[in-house]
Design a protein that fits this description.
The protein has about 475 residues and is of the alpha/beta class. The protein is built from 18 helices and 14 strands. The chain binds uridine-5'-diphosphate-xylopyranose (2 copies). One uridine-5'-diphosphate-xylopyranose binds next to helix 5.
Length: about 475
């Protein structure tokens, strides 16, 4: 069997690496139009940081896993073609700011139809709005040279930072297909592929529309839990309750469960906001105003949490952060990834820069170039102007020298065990800590002399 995957991104790369690793007799070609990304996949420095990914790629690459820009040839030879190109939120025209931009996906379908020399199974791996398979199918058939195309939906549920574990031991694999003889055959071939390493009972099969919608609903549900915890964090600060204690008490109910209840400065990542807005757009498209409003609130709460965090910092630091040095700990949207897409850190930094703060940003995996270009885009400020206000500093002790405050944006494990006394001694006083992830040892920091403001925890009683 030959597989081709179009799109060597955060999803396509790791997913195909695990398929190739688990199925040595299947040839897996990952193609991408971006030559430098392909080169990086073929080098020792992979373009995606994921624990365990290097080892998986090393085992399979050159054996049955290949990365190339030779898109047409690989499409031509493949039995199954995964489409894993990005589907960003539209920035123009109808549905701008909400709907998914499907132009890359449509281009893929046209290309597949054009170069295919034989019947193919086309698998939607990218997250797509419900009924995209219908459009794909129409584009494929309208342009085919008489060949048959079966379209399956196989959404990805991997979370960044745990991608390899999620792929090797998934809670479930979901495959949607048509209830026709050829549809059932195509679906079975994908089920058989996953069944090489995933227990059968964890492979769910549905119709195509259910599969597409399940992905959006799953992400909306996860994000909704985080927004609920974040809404709670504000009430805890006002009342003296402790957000972790309340979340733990509620999450101990087996019907609620403990996961995705950690209050934070805001969820980020390439999926949550995009998928919810997509769901909102779909609801509106079908005239369902109340469901649309319901889901929109999950994103609104997240935006509020980020701006609330900035406001609390400014209020606490005597109503001004102008000219003050603030050490930003973490820039990735969560730990164990170098991905910054929709990271809460971007919005918080933008808010602080609007207040004329000076930022020293530390992240163990995100390159300075990514941080600066993200902030350039977010603030609309030129690189030169930004450079006078933002420094990317690999060393946390240099970043905190003379700082007025520390703000934790990402829950990197190494931030929990810093030499806090050393940091305190070199900071301006009062030395403020704003813990946007609830990870620092707050009691120990307070004992050292820091003024600690953590999300969802009572503010410290100020010694006057
Ligand atoms: C994935 C999914 O595909 C997306 O739908 C989901 O919501 C988020 O995760 P991801 O792998 O994270 O996307 O995206 P990205 O890392 O941007 O990778 C996409 C790749 O596709 C890029 O390397 C890009 O160069 C490539 N691409 C895009 C093509 O090869 N051809 C195209 O026409 C468009
Ligand atoms: C998510 C889904 O989990 C995954 O199934 C889907 O395929 C892609 O989207 P991902 O975006 O990689 O994965 O990360 P996830 O672990 O879900 O975290 C998303 C955001 O929520 C992060 O910013 C994270 O820090 C935040 N989060 C998560 C919280 O703030 N609190 C929590 O309790 C959990």
């Amino acid at each position: 069997m030959k597989i081709c995957c179009i799109g060597a991104g955060y999803v396509g790369g790791p997913t195909m690496a695990v398929i190739a690793d688990r199925c040595p007799d299947v040839t897996v070609n990952v193609v991408d139009m971006n030559q430098s990304r392909v080169d990086a996949w073929n080098s020792d420095s992979l373009p995606v940081y994921e624990p365990g990914l290097d080892a998986v790629v090393k085992r399979a690459r050159g054996r049955n896993l290949f990365f190339t820009c030779d898109i047409d040839r690989q499409i031509e030879h493949a039995d199954i073609i995964f489409v894993s190109v990005n589907t960003p939120t539209k920035t123009y025209g109808i549905g701008a700011g909400f709907a998914a931009d499907l132009s890359f996906v449509e281009l893929c379908a046209r290309r597949i139809a054009q170069v295919a020399r034989g019947n193919k199974t086309v698998v939607e791996k990218s997250t797509l709005p419900v009924r995209t398979a219908e459009s794909l199918r129409r584009v494929l058939h309208a342009n085919s040279n008489g060949y048959r195309f079966e379209v399956l939906s196989n959404p990805e549920f991997l979370a960044e930072g745990t991608a390899i574990a999620d792929l090797e031991r998934p809670d479930r694999v979901l495959i949607g297909g048509d209830d026709t003889p050829t549809g059932r055959t195509a679906l079975q071939s994908l089920v058989d592929l996953y069944a090489r390493w995933v227990p059968r009972e964890r492979i769910l099969t549905t119709n195509v529309w259910s599969s597409e919608l399940s992905k959006l609903f799953s992400n909306a549900m996860l994000a909704q839990r985080v927004s609920s915890a974040n809404a709670l964090s504000a009430l805890c600060e006002a009342t003296g309750a402790d957000v972790d204690e309340v979340a733990n008490a509620a999450g101990s109910d087996s019907r609620i469960g403990p996961k995705f209840l950690k209050a934070s400065v805001g969820f980020g990542g390439s999926c949550f906001q995009k998928d919810i807005l997509n769901l909102v757009y779909l609801c509106e498209h079908y005239g369902l105003r109340e469901p649309a409003e319901y889901w929109r609130q999950v994103v609104a709460m997240n935006d509020w949490q980020k701006s609330r965090f900035v406001k609390r910092m400014v209020d606490t630091m005597f109503n001004t952060v102008s000219g003050k040095r603030i050490a930003i700990l973490g820039f990735a949207f969560k730990k164990d990834t170098n991905d910054t897409r929709a990271s809460a850190a971007i919005d918080v930094c933008r808010g602080l820069l609007a207040e004329n703060a000076e930022l020293l940003i530390v992240d163990p995996k995100v390159p300075a170039e990514t941080i600066l270009s993200d902030l350039e885009r977010a603030t609309g400020t030129s690189r030169e102007v930004l450079a006078s206000r933002v420094q990317c500093e690999p060393d946390v002790y240099r970043a905190t020298r003379d700082a007025h405050a520390i703000a934790v944006m990402t829950e990197w494990t190494q931030f929990k065990t810093l030499e806090f006394q050393r940091i305190y001694d070199q900071m301006q006083k009062p030395a403020f800590v704003f813990d946007g992830r609830g990870i620092l040892p707050h009691a120990a920091l307070t004992a050292i002399g820091f003024e600690v403001y953590a999300l969802g925890k009572p503010a410290p009683a100020l010694a006057r």
